[in-house]
């Protein structure tokens, strides 16, 4: 790979805006809905906090302890493409979309996910 190609790839990576949206966590028969300003990094963050026993949702931690990490599934439900939103507008939109998905899937909200 040439230096020019490498620099172009690094620049493109730094300029890329992370996708934000709503996700579901499924473990056994339970489903939790959350939102994230960076969907690509969210799954790793959740897996890490669960592994360390530091996740704020103790119900999710209990389900993982009961069913095991193999039963844990992360699924992106909705990726939002609204580049003109303010940070406050983005947070408000994510909260409304989480409420919609919680009702639609009869799920539980994942506290502290936005």
TrEMBL record:
Gene3D superfamilies: GIY-YIG endonuclease
Classification via CDD domains: GIY-YIG_LuxR_like (cd10451)
Name of this protein: GIY-YIG nuclease family protein
Native source organism of the sequence: Phenylobacterium conjunctum
